[in-house]
Amino acid sequence: MPSDWAFAIIYVMVFGFAVYIGFLLGDNWGKRIVTEREYWLSNAAALVGVVALVTLVRIALVQIVALGMLTGGIAGIKMGFGESVGPWKWLDKFMNTNRHQRKVAQKGTGEAYRRRRKTGEAGPDLISVDEKGSSTHKRG
After folding, report:
1. Residue 42: CA atoms inside 13 Å, Cβ hemisphere, count?
2. In the 8-state DSSP scheme, what is residue 139?
3. 59-78: b or e for each residue (b if 16 or more CB lie within 10 Å)?
């Protein structure tokens, strides 16, 4: 009987670690996604991959790792994507979190930002950078 508790504790610890690793991987992957369509395809691919792995591999520890990575990966993809999409909109609003991501979703500027981030293009200038009105500019 004590070994059952040991396995349960190990499973919980491995699951937590897998969630963390899945979040890191999902966050990195989410930063590469540009469109909302790609976002949903990435979530679907992660889900199909984990379902296939859990179905094919009948080792409980591998299944726990796969489910943990899926859990963390879905959250990581959302955070890397940088916008509240789908059910995340409702959850973010309900819990009053991720205000920046909710604003990006309302303004509709997320895709342009992600496209610039992916290509390495500079964003729009928000302040003037010329020297005409500067106090350090010497007038002749």
Report:
1. 23
2. P
3. eeeebbbbbbbbbbbbbbbb
Spatial neighbors of 70 by CB under 8 A, at least 6 apart, are: 22, 46, 47, 50
Separation CA 77–CA 26 (nearest Å): 4
- Tens of pLDDT, residue by residue over 1-59, are 567 899 899 999 999 999 999 999 999 999 999 999 999 999 999 999 999 999 999 99
pLDDT digits (tens, 9 = 90+) for 36-47: 999 999 999 999
Provide the Cα torsion 24, 77, 50, 92; round to 10°.
Answer: 110
Q: Read off the pLDDT of residues 76-93 as tens digits, 9 standing for 90 and up.
A: 999 999 888 889 889 988
Contacts of 140 (CB under 8 A, 6+ apart): none
